[in-house]
């Protein structure tokens, strides 16, 4: 006959918590509180098991757990097995992880990304496992390796073969110009501000009042364009190792960016910088057609010749970034944040309202539109 077992003497706090557990909706906690309180009153295991409708080993387990760990016995342990038994050996798990970094096309498959079924098939074909396995086996092993299903990230790289050389040159020019008090450093770019396209954004909201970005449609009598083009320069100040990039100069244009408007914008920026006592401008921009056009290059060259000849004015030193490398131009994320902040969630902005919000967000004074000069015949 097995020896009788009872709970150890309860403290006042333990008794209060066990009494409170009798009013819980958690069946696991309720049953254990009933067993422990009954045992504390001197009820033997057999009586408790018969009264509560459970087995005697269950009652003994609860009492042993309480005597060993105290009130921690009221917390239900995970039912997940402590060890995962699969068809994969430790070496096989490493081979599986390496397999995911290779393309399925290397193994004669007709796709470039893996599915669980395809992984299971290739593992058997490569003898990583000795018997055919299911996709569920693969899924559990991958989870144990810290690999789960995630969305692939879009990634861009510059195809420019001289990317590293141009990047080093950019950094070297910025570092040198930052040490010159009469030099200005400006990152120039153009952007379209749409009245209809809605940016991807996050905002604080509750479930009862969700914010919805309602798609707008253009009316026939709408006099404003669907989108407005804007030139902008982000000015860099301070030392190269800790740059300050807050001030921006903006000009909206009639129509789209072209060489004529680009020249007008550059001339306007030169006038502003000259009033600030600057003598040179390190102009960093991309390879847009209206930047690399013969018309713009000729104007910059003639502008610098006149400045050198007259010994007054502001010289422009243009630097073209590597092809398709927007991450090297810090004005790019400025546009993204601006579009998220000026968006209207409840209606459609007019062109004037859009421009007002853009100027206000970037703390830039309003300037009239740049327009293409008509040639006089």
Give a quick precis of the structure.
The protein has 377 residues and is an alpha/beta fold.
Keyword list:
Nucleotidyltransferase, domain 5; 3 domains; five-stranded mixed β-sheet; 13 helices; 5 strands; 10% strand
Structural notes for this entry:
It is a single chain. The chain is an alpha/beta fold and 377 residues long. It folds into three domains: 12-74, no CATH class; 90-144; 166-361, Nucleotidyltransferase, domain 5 (2-Layer Sandwich), CATH 3.30.420. The protein has helices at residues 12-21, 27-40, 45-52, 56-69, 90-99, 116-125, 135-144, 163-178, 259-275, 289-292, 294-310, 331-342, 351-361; strands spanning 183-194, 227-236, 248-252, 280-285, 315-320. Strands 3-2-1-4-5 form a five-stranded mixed sheet, with helices on both faces.
């Amino acid at each position: 006959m097995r020896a009788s077992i009872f709970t150890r003497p309860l403290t006042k706090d333990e008794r209060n918590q066990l009494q409170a557990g009798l009013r819980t909706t958690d069946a696991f906690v309720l049953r254990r509180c009933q067993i422990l309180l009954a045992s504390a009153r001197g009820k033997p295991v057999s009586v408790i098991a018969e009264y509560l409708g459970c087995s005697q080993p269950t009652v003994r387990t609860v009492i042993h757990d309480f005597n060993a760990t105290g009130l921690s016995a009221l917390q239900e342990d995970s039912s997940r097995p402590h060890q995962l038994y699969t068809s994969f050996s430790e070496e096989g798990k490493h081979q599986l992880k390496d397999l995911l970094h290779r393309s399925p096309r290397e193994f004669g498959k007709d796709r470039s990304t893996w599915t669980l079924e395809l992984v299971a098939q290739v593992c058997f074909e490569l003898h990583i496992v000795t018997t055919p396995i299911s996709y569920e086996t693969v899924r559990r092993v991958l989870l144990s390796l810290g690999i789960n299903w995630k969305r692939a990230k879009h990634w861009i790289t510059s195809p420019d073969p001289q990317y590293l050389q141009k990047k080093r040159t950019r950094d070297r020019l910025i570092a040198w110009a930052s040490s010159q008090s009469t030099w200005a450093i400006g990152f120039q770019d153009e952007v379209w501000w749409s009245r209809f396209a809605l940016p991807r954004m996050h905002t604080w909201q509750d479930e009862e009042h969700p914010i919805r970005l309602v798609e707008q449609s253009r009316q026939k009598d709408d006099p404003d364009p669907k989108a407005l083009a804007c030139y902008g320069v982000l000015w860099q100040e301070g030392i190269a190792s800790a740059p300050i990039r807050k001030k921006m100069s903006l000009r909206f244009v009639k129509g789209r960016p072209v060489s004529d408007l680009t020249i007008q914008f550059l001339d306007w920026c030169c006038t502003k910088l000259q009033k600030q006592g600057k003598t040179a401008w390190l102009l960093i921009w991309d390879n847009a057609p209206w930047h690399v056009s013969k018309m713009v290059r000729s104007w910059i060259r003639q502008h610098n010749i006149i400045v050198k000849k007259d010994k007054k004015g502001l010289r422009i030193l243009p630097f073209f970034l590597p092809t398709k490398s927007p991450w090297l131009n810090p004005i790019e994320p400025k546009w993204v944040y601006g579009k998220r902040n000026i968006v209207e969630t409840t209606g459609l902005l007019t062109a004037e309202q859009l421009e007002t919000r853009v100027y206000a967000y970037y703390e830039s004074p309003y300037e009239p539109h740049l327009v293409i000069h008509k040639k006089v015949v």
